[in-house]
Specification:
- By secondary structure, the chain is mostly helical.
- It has one domain (2-226).
- It has eight helices and two strands.
- The protein has a two-stranded antiparallel sheet with strand order 1-2.
- Helix 3 packs parallel to helix 6 (132-156) and helix 7 runs antiparallel to helix 8 (196-226).
- The longest helix has 31 residues, at 196-226.
Length: 227
């Protein structure tokens, strides 16, 4: 078990060191997420007031789209340097490599969400500070479920010519339940009369999805990547 976490940490450290030098994935993903929010703001905000209760949906749409971009860009870099092949040839547990890639993706998406959430709160008048722990739990659980599936699929498609097209086609149908739970849970604390109990229900459901998705990904990563 100690070796598992050591390998995962080495993978995370490698990804973060590369990203710290280039800022390629963070900058492009953040720019894309901000663009999505601003486009919706221009279309759905009238005289400073948002049309309907759309802030929760906008937050999760921006998160999903930017997360897909981050997944594609991260593994494109792995393909160019043939790093993923080197990782698979290394004498290390394959599930630990997946865990490291997943942790690195979660860190990148968390950085984007730190900017995205205040922007949504500002432009759409969302009460992001009313139940901050509920919102943080929803984002963490939802992002984990989304990234767990996305990391597996992005690694599978790294050598495919049509990977940019295939990734969202495979990813979105499976992660729709995660997105729905995230939107409904966020809407429960953003609405005029917040319902934290309902938000906790959706958090619990997201945690269930996380356990299922991460377990299946850890189980299937090695056979999928060695075929």
């Amino acid at each position: 078990m100690k070796g598992f976490f050591r390998v995962a940490w080495l993978v995370v450290r490698k990804d973060m060191m590369v990203e710290a030098r280039s800022l390629e994935v963070v900058s492009t993903t953040l720019f894309f997420a901000l663009t999505v929010v601003l486009v919706f703001a221009f279309g759905l905000v009238r005289e400073g007031t948002p049309v309907g209760d759309v802030s929760a949906a906008i937050l999760w749409i921006a998160t999903a789209f930017s997360g897909t971009l981050a997944l594609g860009r991260t593994f494109e870099r792995e393909r160019q340097a043939d790093t993923l092949r080197a990782l698979m040839l290394a004498p290390a547990d394959r599930p630990a490599i997946y865990a490291g890639k997943l942790a690195g993706m979660l860190l990148l998406m968390a950085l984007v969400e730190l900017v995205l959430v205040p922007l949504v709160g500002l432009l759409f008048q969302a009460p992001i500070v009313a139940y901050p722990w509920h919102l943080a739990a929803l984002l963490l659980a939802g992002t984990t479920g989304f990234a767990a599936v996305g990391t597996l699929f992005a690694a599978m498609l790294v050598r495919a010519r049509s990977r940019d097209v295939m990734l969202p086609i495979l990813l979105y149908p499976i992660t729709v339940p995660v997105m729905i739970a995230g939107v409904r849970g966020t809407a429960a604390i953003f609405q005029g009369t917040p319902d934290p109990d309902l938000a906790r229900f959706w958090i619990a459901l997201l945690l269930f999805f996380d356990v299922v998705f991460v377990t299946l990904a850890l189980w299937t990563f090695e056979p999928v990547m060695t075929e």
